[in-house]
Design a protein that fits this description.
The complex is a heterotrimer of chains A (748), B (288) and C (160).
Chain A lengths: L20 H6 L14 E7 L5 E7 L1 H5 L3 E5 L10 H10 L4 E2 L5 E7 L2 H10 L1 E6 L6 H4 L24 E9 L2 H7 L2 E9 L11 E6 L5 E5 L4 H12 L6 E5 L15 H10 L5 E4 L2 H7 L5 E10 L5 E11 L8 H8 L8 E8 L14 H19 L3 H7 L19 H10 L11 E10 L4 E9 L5 E5 L7 H13 L6 E5 L16 H28 L6 E4 L2 E4 L10 E2 H11 L4 E8 L5 E11 L6 E11 L6 H20 L30 E6 L21 H13 L10 H13 L1
Parallel strand pairs in A: 1-12, 10-11, 14-15, 18-19, 25-26
Antiparallel strand pairs in A: 1-5, 2-4, 2-6, 3-5, 7-15, 8-13, 9-10, 9-12, 13-14, 16-24, 17-18, 17-23, 20-21, 21-22, 24-25
Helix pairs in contact in A: 3-7, 7-8, 10-11, 11-18, 14-15, 15-16, 17-18
Chain B lengths: L1 E4 L3 H10 L4 E4 L5 H6 L7 E4 L9 E3 L5 E4 L4 H5 L2 H6 L1 H8 L4 H4 L4 H6 L8 H7 L2 E6 L2 E6 L4 E3 L2 E2 L6 E7 L6 E8 L10 E10 L2 E10 L6 E2 L1 H7 L6 H14 L10 H23 L5
Parallel strand pairs in B: 1-3, 2-3
Antiparallel strand pairs in B: 4-5, 5-10, 6-7, 6-10, 8-9, 11-12, 12-13, 13-14
Helix pairs in contact in B: 5-8, 9-10, 10-11
Chain C lengths: L3 E7 L2 E7 L5 H8 L18 E4 L2 E4 L12 E3 L12 H8 L9 H14 L5 H7 L11 H18 L1
Parallel strand pairs in C: 1-5
Antiparallel strand pairs in C: 1-2, 3-4, 3-5
Helix pairs in contact in C: 2-5
The chains are: A alpha+beta (748), B alpha+beta (288), C alpha+beta (160).
Chain lengths: 748, 288, 160
Amino acid sequence: MAKDEFREFRLVGTRPDRPDGLDKVTGRARYGADISAPGMLWGAVVRSPHAHARIVKIDTSKAEALSGVKAVVTRADFPTGLTGDEWDLQENTMAGDKALYDGHAVAAVAATSKLRAEEAARLIEVEYEVLPHVIDVDDAIKPDAPVIREGAADATVPEGMPPNVVRYFEHGRGDLDAGFAEADLVRENTYRTEATHQGYIEPHACLGQLGEDGKGEMWVCTQGHWFIRKMCADVLGLEKSQLRVTPSEIGGGFGGKTTIFMEPLSLALSRKAGGRPVKIVMSRSEVLRATGPTASASMDVKIGMKKDGTLTAGRAEFRMQGGAFWGAPVDMALDCAFAAYKLPAVMHIGYDVLANRPKAAAYRAPGSPMAACAVESLIDEMCRELGLDPMEVRLKNAVREGDRSSYGPKFKSIGLVETLEATKAHPNFSAPLGPNQGRGIASGFWFNHGGETSVTIALSEDGTVTVSAGTPDIGGSRASIALMTAETLGIPYENVRVNIVETGALGVNEPTHGSRATFATGKAAVEAANAAIKEMCRRAAVEWGIDPEAVEWVDGAAQPAGPNAGKFPPMSIAEIAGNMGSTGGPISGHHEGNLGGVGASFGCHVVDVEVDPETGRTTILRYLVVQDAGRAIHPAYVEGQYQGGAAQGIGWALNEGYVYGEDGRLQNSVFLDYRVPVASDLPMIDTVIVEVPNPGHPFGVRGVGETGITPPLPAIANAIHAATGARLRHLPMNPPSVLAAIKAVKGG
Amino acid sequence: MRYHAAKTFEEAASIAAKADGVTRFLAGGTDVLVQLRAGLVTPDDLIDLKHIDGVQDITRLDDGGWEIGVAVAGARLGAHEALCADWPGVVEGMELVGSTQVQGRATLTGNLCNGSPAADGVPGLVAAGAVAKIVGPDGMREIPIEEIPAGPGKTTLAKGELIAAVRLPARGAGGGDAYQRFIPRTEMDIAVAGCAINLRVEGDTITEARVAIGAVAPTIRLVPEAAELLVGSTLDAATADALAAAVSAAANPITDKRGTSEFRTEVVGVLARRVAQTAYDRAKGDRS
Amino acid sequence: MSKIHVTTTVNGDSVEFLADPRETLLDCLRDHLDLTGTKEGCGTGDCGACSVTLDGTLVCSCLVLGIEAEGREIGTIEGLAQGHELHPLQRKFIEHAALQCGFCTPGFLVAAKALLDKNPNPTETEVRYWLAGNLCRCTGYDKIVRAVMDAAEEMRKEAV
């Protein structure tokens, strides 16, 4: 299915052991909470129990009087006068005049032991004036909703909008009215998705140290330590270069570890405690209450379809809340909504709305799963109504290379059609179904991302190579970067060590986000390797006394390029490295830039479910992920991304979701009631890797991390409909909702 | 927090009776430690019962019944073939509590004393007609299990009283019991509704029955009117439907984060029908 | 609150530490004995990242008090490999790419070993239910289950 010219790789596409595997199966790998330092203190955070409250008074005297307490900080210890995003970050790090959500930090304490710090935190007395709160996005957008923050709207919001709307989006193209007029069937429905948490198993943890001189260090589990450095420095008024941030191994992130939460608190406490290092480790409850889940959404979608399945027009109007700050991914949701379809007319309208919930963070393909839930459900509903095969309708309307996307730019090389065809060819697509069973399909999309990237490779004296990379390895990216580097250099995979280095060692790197680590860091590593090859060829040329242009690099060695260049035996990388001290000194290669050439990734999922008609419980019988990887550098970890994305999407579809009480407090802040899928909930997750190479990457990589969470939401809704005749348009599709929907169908 | 490793139940009772702050007994610890960790309850006195002789024992009594020590973890119940053969419903209820890891610690008595209406280990005991042996300042007494829960998080035990063992009656001929709960996932959840049924047959006819429901009222409770429907029947379809209706009618659940009142009411009836069939099959000799 | 002296055996070694009675075994392993391979993911017994064995029984170390370890035998991830020799489960986890972030991995390995010690030939369903108390958010469990089944098969062959 790959429309690539034949190209044989030595290493790319193989499945070697990951370089950090041994550390991670023996317990040696050091994660955020695994490091201690001499003189270390433990931090604890006091959090608001109210969804919305004015902070009248904070009395820290009892805590400060407790033996072993070395520092207490409140917002009064932070610099004033910040604006824009920096002010938002500071406000979220620690509440100022008002607590804006249940779990919002209001004070922090550092003491000589964890238990002592927790005791001290309980002794801090905070007087609140409780204010009216709002949780649901459709309530928050009402004109008379409690006002969360005056003047938070940006310039996109027209006069007269409700007070909690802080960003407004409106864009489209084509004649929408004509498109709907041309359709044989026009349907419009409202869909809702609940906020879900990334649910990484490692709680946030950091060890921060900051002196009175403004010099500091931090050890932290993060997807992006340059982001941590910049944000902490902004919030605390530090010089960025004076803060050195080292990433630990990271126990999952999924977007949620691309920003700061308690990291500045450890630095502020350390500075106040005379520069002693302060470790803060969140509890699971703190993670769920106070770190960034994704947005909740309420979405109206309208689609026009002809009898033959041709789509004529689409309109999406999305309302999303991302907590008490701007940042719900409504813009990206809108752009993803119709991305898989050729549409002559399309309109997008979006509202980013404040609510009394924690500040949303990125979560795997931010916005795309919600959008797919609405659009892919409605397409399925309309196919049923017109008696059309939903796969054929998707193929008929599928975007191809050169088509203008629904969100603007023309698609370069993409693999949607290849993905849909591969799905049709898989046995799961035609497996027989029994009673109370149903099959659903849905497509998904993610842009993927390049971004700021800086990589250095350096030759060691024995001809082995270290790669200094700036994107923390969350899912095996050391292996893929080592494979690409070794492939380029013509050396064994084992001869490359990939180090994720601290902020002082490279230029700015964006986090491991946007499915970019293998794409961008890999691309930069290949370019850096090419730079090193150029220098190695030059050293050989000098040795041989020939023109550097007459030397080529083949199988890990310099050799004369053809008989006219001279007759010399190949000079291996080990020889060149062994002599480099006397031929001009160290050899390294470096590449950095804002990397482009990104290739979008489409996927298609097929799910078979069985629904217990008496209890409404849905069992996943079979699950298939088909997705265009561009090129799978290490196929096992590509499959892993597909399977992991699908599992998170299944959780979102069926049982995950933030549950708030009338008092605005989060009711399910432990894993007992925040129900992520467990091993016995899932079947094996079948995968097909489609490879339509991305011409913007030396090996064709697109990025694979995010698309996979997008289709499960609608695919499962479509499957439940097929199994029961009931259509669920509100997530989660938990047993009470499904049973009620089944009864409504039977009763009606 | 003071930690006491009691050597006898009398010593444990005496420490508890004299304590003037918050007291907790430690057996499996799977509830106490969670509460401690969350800062919900920090006991002034924590009395560890695991050092008392016999608390880890599962003993066949002379009358054919069973005595289960207060520190016997769920995994050990499941590994006890003779107990599983007699009271599969009691054991399967306890085995649904938490993960494999929690099964290594959690105990029937702890599940009972935690006072949750959703405790999976308890409906099976109630349906079985089990009793608790209680030690207190005034000596020892025995009371039926269903008299212990007093509401969410509460028991009828007085200050200084603690459970020393749980006793199951002799199984006898033609008996069978079963428990099922409903949860949204396949594991790791608190019951949204639960039902245990214990019955006895002569030939195809049910001669005795006890029906207990969980997670659908402030306490786990017996539903005698549902049990009466079973007695004299062969569990035909009409009886099963009547049973489901009676059990649903007896439910008085709340709506919370785990399920709506309406859903719980309906599903506990569905469970009753399914559980009755399993118990009936077991009573007739199908041990699966 | 005065600390209590605890003597216990961890991975075959006799060790001592002073524990506040409120501290969990997990806290003591990590903070007093520097055995940080055992992870805390939830502190409520819901995620299994802190799995250890206590006198051979699989437990969550966050649900055991440190002082309860007195005189007992604890097994942690650090004791899984025999010297330089990885346990077959450890090798198979690497070979099958059964870890992405790796944070849940120590708990899965300790739990899976407890399963195979008890049941050398588990079905896929038995593996999934036994490991239901170990949360993994990265893999969707597919490769973990395959790695456990494959390790079991290899160990059965070796045992013949």
